[in-house]
């Protein structure tokens, strides 16, 4: 059973942060703890933090949080409220240091707006997972029939403290009729109780009625908010506002000053706010207009606000799920399926599967004899080995009879039609009867434990693609009979040559590919590569159109990764290549490398391989746009925004898709009707629903977070779902064997990230956008 994520909320129940914490905890079905000393140290915990509740000073608050986080043994995630900003004045620097210390201790950080995230980026070097989950907007109250407020009152909601805007609102009211009253809805913030009297005194001097309600219980708040004529929220330095949301939830359209946060709210909930110029004069003008047109201070029936409490809770639940430790699944035959690329979670299986060693060969008799001699010395049982020499058209067949007494050897041959290592490896694999395929080049000599080290992982992890360690030596003059002395230490080892530093660095940085990503295909070297025969067949083997040196292993590994293979480097599976690496042998033949790059770029959907703006048959990104509810204009705007991304193809599916597109009059070859067929060689498939607008780099930003399965809310009217080919393929491979649904397997192995559109530059569109110029 999944353990709940506890919510820690310190402070009085009426405080906005505490209220928010309790509301979200209930919506996510998680308990709330209000005493930091009562938190179980091994329970996942989510903390709603503001320095004003954690200590008397910002430094004291940071000390308390850091001490707690260091003692805690489970993931600590945190929502930071009241993010520091320059308007804090002299407290800004100490508050910034406080929040920096808190963020450094958290496994993941939530802020309530993109505005807050940008504020944090302005003042600290964020190397953390900071995501945006907007404050939820409660269910909008049913509209009043006449939508006329019962009192000519300007209302300001929220705690009273300097900067909240009460004084400015009073000043702006000087231009209004004297019978318009001022209602302060809420109590004074602790330490600022005297402000209530000061505001009353100022109002009296202005011959204006002023009333403070004090704290208003939840069950009475909507009635109060619906009774005032002019709902106002004039806190110009707001970074996230529960009071604005409360106005909206009461069915009101509050007057708010233009600013980054307000524009963000308008993007999420179009039409929910009355936005005016960010000045006292602008507020005065808007209030006078609101008194003349009271209907404009009420929400229209067609306004869709975002997020609801349920939508915010879904974002939090996804965050908590991301923090949970993923585990491997045991298959009925005792082998394992692992999450992500976590090959280290596959437990060793005590068995010795049959292994077919495939050796591509061309006129390398002496070197082949070294390899065959080394295979006779393997610690792996000889009766479980099959050796296949795949001759790439040598004038004479390789001589292997001298090794048949010790090895089960098969020789297969193909005509000499150029350097066709890919085809030779496929030919060898076609006659293999082993469960495991170990590919060795004819000039690459395996150490005695090479096969055993390769098979140990592959025997328990059927969709692993493993690469051994290829070292280099000058084997000039060495014969097969010398190998035993070399490996046994009875004779001198050959001169060792430089091992490619780029390979060693790649394996080190990725912890032997445990942290593999979509560019790790570059570290799979076919000279020392192993995989199961079933995976090799499923992927389709090597691409035989590769003729000439190099490239076929990168192509194979790239396809394998997108097909859900688990990449692993096995540093103890060592084989010695006779001579230096190719670049050192040739001095870096640019023409040859260019030919290889040209072959790869049409096949590999790595942006680094595609920098020239061309359109390829296999796009990196496949986007399926649902035409449901669209007009021809809105569909054009959505599809056009997708095509800001060059390496992308779009399919339009849904009602009237053909008719809607026909009105465009285009002939764009990147746009298709219907649904894509096999998109498995593309990196991701993206499904778009609703009126969605992608910014210039929106799709690229989505890919940059590295999620295999991602859902993006676009306001309250659209969604974007990203699914990697990798996660789809692995789930399809094992769902049946595990007896579970495809989606369940995919999300248990790869997780499911849930984010908001504004984080990526994705915004809501309109059913009838303006196409005029």
UniProtKB/TrEMBL annotation:
Pathway: Cell wall biogenesis; cell wall polysaccharide biosynthesis
Single annotated GO MF: glycosyltransferase activity
Positions of the Glycosyltransferase 2-like domain: 356-475
EC numbers on record: 2.4.-.-
Keyword check for 4Fe-4S: no
Superkingdom, natural source: Bacteria
Principal EC category: transferase
Protein keywords: Glycosyltransferase, Transferase
InterPro entries in UniProt: Galactosyl_T_C, Glyco_trans_2-like, Nucleotide-diphossugar_trans
Domain Galactosyltransferase C-terminal, first and last residues per copy: 519-572
Family: Belongs to the glycosyltransferase 2 family.
Protein name: Glycosyltransferase
